[in-house]
Amino acid sequence: MPEPKPYVLNSKEVQRATLEWLEKRGVTTRHIAELVHYLQSPYFPDLTLEECEHHVVAVLSKREVQNAVLTGIQLDMLAEEGKLLPPLQDMVRHDEALYGIDEVLALSIVNVYGSIGFTNFGYIDKQKPGILNKLNDKTDGEIHTFLDDIVGAIASSAASRMAHRKQEEKENGLPSD
């Protein structure tokens, strides 16, 4: 009997799937860039959406972020299909206030980019601007218990990444990426 081939993950496939599933769930990198702009434009008045989107794409290139996105979307979809076991099904379907695992998963993203990301996340999670308002709307039958927090975490991380790069640029006269 031949040896089974060893498992090898294709990183490009994971990144492609991440972007594809975000879009299937109604979220684009531009939507997330608008959230970054919302967070950072008070500090950087000349900030463009293109610059924000650059940082969003950089955050989405991280494997930890991709894992959280794919996991959260799958859990939301399973809840839409009624395939989670009780009482988890009802907690996810109704985005139960004391069910904090959606935030914990999102914090795994924020954790990649430092403490400023935590404060950004708390703020944007309460404000729910832009796409977050749409994802949090429970009237369309879709469940985004995990995705709304994940999108907020991606935006918060991109804003944190940007703030760190701009500070470095300011201190050293270096161009930010």
Care to describe what's here?
The structure is a single chain. The chain has 177 residues and is an all-alpha fold. It has a single domain, classed as PgpA-like (YutG-like), CATH 1.10.3760. 66% of the residues lie in helices and 0% in strands. It has nine helices and no strands. The chain is globular, with a radius of gyration of 17 Å. The N and C termini lie far apart (52 Å).
Compile the SSE list and pairings:
Layout: H1 11-24, H2 29-40, H3 49-60, H4 63-80, H5 88-93, H6 101-110, H7 115-127, H8 131-136, H9 147-172
Helix pairs in contact: 1-4, 2-3, 2-9, 3-9, 4-6, 4-9, 6-9, 7-9
Pfam families: PgpA (PF04608)
Organism: Thermobacillus composti (strain DSM 18247 / JCM 13945 / KWC4)
GO molecular function: phosphatidylglycerophosphatase activity
CATH hierarchy, class: Mainly Alpha
Distance between the termini: 52 Å
The geometry reads as globular
Q: Give the mean pLDDT.
A: 95
Question: Class by helix and strand content?
Answer: mainly alpha
| CATH topology-level name | YutG-like
CATH superfamily: PgpA-like
- How many whole angstroms does the radius of gyration measure? 17 Å
Order of helices and strands: HHHHHHHHH
Major sheet, described briefly? none
How many extended strands? 0
Helical proportion, percent range: 55-70%
**Discrete helix count:** 9
Low-confidence segments, given as residue ranges, are none
Beta-strand share of residues: under 5%
CATH architecture grouping: Orthogonal Bundle
Pfam families: PgpA
Domain YutG/PgpA: 32-164
GO molecular function: phosphatidylglycerophosphatase activity
Protein name: Phosphatidylglycerophosphatase A-like protein
